[in-house]
Amino acid sequence: MRSIHPHQAFVGFAAAGLIGGCNAIFGLDEVKPLGAGAGGLGASTGVGASGGAQGGEAAMAGIGGTGGSTQSSGGNGGNDPCGNGIIDAGETCDGDCIEPFLCFDADQCTTSEVIGAAECNAECVHTDNPGCVNNDGCCPNGCGLNDDNDCNTHVLIVAPDPSDEIRDVLAQALSPYFVNLDTENVSDTTPSVSLLASYYAVVYVGYGAPFDATALGNALADYHDLGGRVVMMLTTECDAYAPAGRFRSEGYYAFPPGGWTTVTDQLFTILEPTHPLIAGIGFMDTQVMCQPLALPDDTLLIGSYANGQPLLGTRLVNGHARVDINVRPNPQGLQNDLPALIANAVFFSQGFPDE
User: Fold this and answer.
1) Are 306 and 267 within 8 A, CB to CB?
2) Half-sphere exposure (CA, 13 Å, Cβ side) for 285?
3) What is the CATH classification number for the domain harbouring 327?
4) Which of 71, 81, 98, 245 is geometrically suited to a Cys-Cys bond with 217, CB 3.0 to 4.6 A?
5) Pairing relation of β-strands 155-159 and 201-206?
6) How is residue 203 annotated by DSSP?
7) What residues contact residue 273 under an 8 Å CB cut-off, 6+ apart?
8) DSSP string across 300-320
9) Cβ atoms within 10 A of the Cβ of 165, count?
10) Run of H or E including 39
11) Residue 36: which domain range?
């Protein structure tokens, strides 16, 4: 993709002042370097026109000199205003330009990149990936398993829930985002790494005690290290219902599990409003939140509750991102933005873009 920013140089001419039948003497423009466009000379009578070559990315041409016997020159053009904190003509940003790692649209079928000058002309652009390509995380329209192995975007919802209640609710809520969804009850068994590895992503919901917390944590850590995407949702009995093993002991959590509490205020604050994880997210309904232990220094806290407890965070673990969501899904239905947030987390967990 090319981005073209035309820079046009305007040449100004002095006006012909015709007063009392006198012949006019036309002023000539003087072209100066970047940021120094000079006004044209004034006519022998009358007022000279604006003139001068445009100087700099957004400089204004100088004003023509006043006509008269002295034929005075016009003023110089303004300097390039990049860095003044104001988005001037020819700029897309100034002091608040997008960072490369925030240029991400959660769409595996596009390539995201920042183009233009980093200081005042940075733009985030998204270009469609070409055709059916294996292992790029994208299954474009018209592609299938026969010509693109990325078309197996199965998501596995894992929860220690013998009644299947929360897994069924989540599967229904996530169906607009993922064609293939499976559920696994881990209250009486532990999925193998080979089973997990057949899925594009695993969403774990701490809705009860796992059959073997250590074995489950080891399996999830191995799956993550193989390139799998793990989205963790811990709320009720946060510590007791959390996978243990390597996932805990070797620091795979963005929010290390601690205690838990009920939510008395649904308000939350978004700390990173431009982060792709929070794109399109407004309201989430929850009654229970985890109270994590001290967050790792490299956890990026994206949102928090009114009482200061974390809502959403991510960190880089062994080469790609982990995402923790501190929200308890409502088993009576998900009529809010939580499904969209989970989908964002699944797609984002492929690693920090452009880093």
Assistant:
1) yes
2) 7
3) 3.40.50.880
4) 245
5) parallel
6) E
7) none
8) EEEEEETTS-EEEEEEEETTE
9) 14
10) none
11) 1-80
Cα 306–Cα 308–Cα 202 angle in degrees, nearest 5: 100
Residue with tokens 């920042």: 114
Among 65, 80, 95, residue at a domain's last position: 80
Distance CA 64, CA 43 (A): 10
Phi/psi for 180 (5° steps) reads -110, 115
CA nearest neighbour of 123 among 165, 85, 164, 90: 90
Q: What is the pTM of this model?
A: 0.59
What token pair was written down for 299?
């956890």
145 is a domain residue: no
Beta strand 320-325 pairing with 300-305: unpaired
Q: Kindly report, residue by residue over 256-302, the tens digit of the pLDDT.
A: 998 877 766 666 788 998 898 888 787 666 666 788 888 999 999 99
Distance CA 25, CA 42 (A): 8
Q: Are 255 and 238 in contact (CB under 8 A)?
A: no
Q: List, in sequence order, every residue forming a beta bridge with 123; answer none if it has no partner.
A: 115
Residues 309 and 211 in one domain: yes
94: amino acid identity, one letter: D
Distance CA(327)–CA(339), nearest Å, equals 11
Kindly state whether residue 184 falls inside one of the protein's structural domains: yes
Closest CA to 355 of 106, 100, 111: 100
Domain boundary among 61, 80, 99: 80
Question: Is residue 220 included in any domain, yes or no?
Answer: yes
- Overall domain count for the chain: 2
Measured CA to CA, the distance from residue 112 to residue 139 in angstroms comes to 17
Regarding whether 73 and 189 lie in a shared domain, the answer is no
Q: Which tens digits make up the pLDDT trace of 197-252?
A: 888 899 999 888 999 999 999 999 999 999 889 999 886 678 888 999 999 999 99
| CA 28 – CA 14 distance, rounded (Å) | 7
Is 104 among the domain residues?
no
Structure tokens at 347: 């797609």
